[in-house]
Design a protein that fits this description.
single chain, 214 residues, alpha/beta, five-stranded parallel beta sheet, 5 strands
C-alpha cells in the first residue's frame, strides 16, 4: 500500500512538473512570435509559404520593390494555375513570368523547407527572405535553418487582422491557434513533424486538396 501511495505521489509530481514545463515553454514560444514585420532587408531570394493570400501578396510586393532577384511560392496545389495566383496580386501578370517560381510538391512546413533548399541550391542563393504568417514564423525558421544551415534567413512576418497576439489570452480563437501551433513547433523540435515529408525524395505528389498543410 505504501509503495502504491509513493508511486501515486511520484506520478503527480512528475505530471505537475511536465505541465509546468509545457506551460512555461508555451509562454516562451508566444514571446518569440514577431509583433511586426520590421524594415524590409534585401536578399538574393524570397520564399512565400502558401496558406493565405496575404503571404503571396507581401512576397510579390517585396520582389517588386527590388528586395530580391527571384521569388519561390512553395506548397502550391498542383491543380492551381499560375494565372490564378497572378490575379491575386497587383501587377502579377508582369512580374510572375520573369521572376516567380512555383513549388508544387511540399505538403507541410518541412516539405516547404526541403523544396526551398533545392530551389536555393539551384540558384546558388546564400540569403533568403522567408514570408509566412507571424504565428507560423518560429516553426518555419526552425525547419528552414535545419534544411539550409548555411543560408542567411530573414523573417518577414504577415499578420492576420483577426489574430490578437498582444492579448492572446483574452481571445479563444487566438489561444487555440497558438496552442496547436506550439504543439507543432514541439514536434518540429524533436523531428516528428512533417510525416508526409519523408516521401519528399521525389518530391511529394499530387494527391491533396489544399495548397499546403502548414
Amino acid at each position: 500500500m505504501i509503495a502504491v501511495i509513493r508511486a501515486l505521489k511520484f506520478g503527480l509530481i512528475a505530471a505537475g512538473l511536465a505541465g509546468a514545463l509545457f506551460a512555461g515553454g508555451f509562454l516562451l514560444f508566444v514571446n518569440t512570435i514577431p509583433r511586426d514585420s520590421g524594415a524590409p532587408q534585401a536578399a538574393e531570394g524570397i520564399v512565400a509559404l502558401t496558406g493565405g493570400k496575404a503571404r503571396i501578396g507581401q512576397a510579390v510586393r517585396l520582389l517588386a520593390q527590388g528586395q530580391a532577384k527571384r521569388l519561390l511560392i512553395t506548397g502550391v496545389n498542383p491543380s492551381t494555375k499560375a494565372s490564378e495566383l497572378q490575379r491575386l496580386v497587383p501587377g502579377g501578370g508582369e512580374i510572375f513570368p520573369c521572376c516567380v517560381d512555383l513549388g508544387r510538391a511540399a505538403l507541410d512546413t518541412r516539405g516547404n523547407a526541403l523544396e526551398t533548399s533545392r530551389w536555393v541550391e539551384k540558384h546558388n542563393f546564400t540569403s533568403l527572405i522567408v514570408v509566412t504568417s507571424s504565428y507560423h514564423m518560429p516553426r518555419a525558421l526552425l525547419e528552414f535553418a535545419r534544411a539550409m544551415p548555411k543560408v542567411h534567413l530573414i523573417p518577414y512576418a504577415v499578420f492576420a487582422p483577426n489574430l490578437r497576439i498582444e492579448s492572446w489570452w483574452a481571445h479563444d480563437g487566438t489561444r487555440r491557434l497558438l496552442f496547436f501551433e506550439y504543439v507543432k513547433y514541439l514536434n518540429a523540435l524533436t523531428g516528428v513533424s512533417g510525416v508526409r515529408a519523408a516521401a519528399m525524395a521525389g518530391i511529394g505528389g499530387p494527391g491533396r486538396s489544399a495548397a499546403s498543410v502548414n
